[in-house]
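Write out this protein's structure.
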Amino acid sequence: MNPPSDMPQRPDGGSGKPGRKLGPIADAVGSAHRAWLEPLRSSFLASGLTINELHLRTG
């Protein structure tokens, strides 16, 4: 598996890989959870990994 920096990136930030895209954060999410979730989602998107690749790396 390639490290994230070697993965091609599209202008929209996606990796061009198949798979389900992240949906928006639900309006009902509390502020504490949102404060944790927003940077986590940003890091995940910037990594270029698919959810399956993340699962394989983290177990």
